[in-house]
Amino acid sequence: MRKCGFIAILGAPNAGKSTLVNQLVGQKVSIVSPKVQTTRSRIMGIAIQGDCQLILIDTPGIFEGKRKLDHAMVKEAFDASANSDAVVLVIDVTKPNLELAHKLCEQHKKGLILCLNKIDLIEKENLLKLTSAVSAFKNIKATFMISALRNDGVKDLAEHLCNELPESPWLFPEDQITNIPMRSWATEVTREQIFLTLHQEIPYNIFVESESWEEFENGSVKISQAIVVAKNNHKGIVLGKGGQTLKKIGQTARHELESQLERRVHLKLFVKVEEDWQEKSWALRAFGIGT
Ligand SMILES: Nc1nc2c(ncn2[C@@H]2O[C@H](COP(=O)(O)OP(=O)(O)OP(=O)(O)O)[C@@H](O)[C@H]2O)c(=O)[nH]1
Ligand SMILES: [Mg+2]
Predict the structure, then answer these.
(1) 182-286 in CATH: which number?
(2) pLDDT digits (tens, 9 = 90+) for 187-201
(3) d(CA 175, CA 209)
(4) Which of ligand 1's atoms lies nearest the C-alpha of 40?
(5) Is the CB of 61 inside a 6 Å radius of any atom of ligand 1?
């Protein structure tokens, strides 16, 4: 009999949740960056492990923010855990947020699976100390020590997760790896490049909107996207001197789109100002978070 179910991946910002989901799926479905708050909405990564289809829900990191956007992001994470068959809590061993971990363990009475991540960056002795600190937490069903980046320990985790899921037909076709539509995925690719290229407050205050997607007979595709900034003076920073920054973002995003889509891509990016969109419900709805 086949098994299938939903697994929410929770944790503090930057813990490595999206890296873990991508490793479990075996392909990149969720964007990753060294900055916190990269993931903004729930993104499903669908993995197959033997007879089992694991529907992994990558979530935004849990943090205390002030903006409407911040609240909507954190709500995404809690909604995912409320509606799932299993919950994985990812902890960055180099910056463990034990207060948050403790709180989440208390809240999840049905139990959760702990993943101590980034073990490639820590001395064994310190890891043991951390393990003993978290072993006192309630409701932990199992603990794994992994390096999501190096794919170390991830297979054991996948096998364990199958035990947590109910018998059920698979909910998605075998070759489907995510639930997000192609156009939204393409805007995420651009957003990832913005996270990797721009600094300070800029990446946290932009969103990327799909404007059009045109397919041509020769197999190529023309994708047009708007980079929406929240302040007029952010526009110049995104453009850079003589438009160089935007050009660089566009080039790298195009390469990534071409390699994933396996076709020629024309990517047209432009910058639009939408004052304080982070506080506007319509904007949050536009990228699928908040109601
Ligand atoms: N050395 C090391 N780095 C890792 C590991 N896992 C993730 N990272 C890095 O940690 C950073 C954050 O990874 P993400 O996967 O974006 O983290 P996240 O938890 O999804 O972050 P948010 O979406 O912002 O909440 C990236 O630079 C990753 O390459 C790991 O096992 N070892
Ligand atoms: Mg993420």
Answers:
(1) 3.30.300.20
(2) 999 999 999 999 999
(3) 27
(4) 23
(5) yes
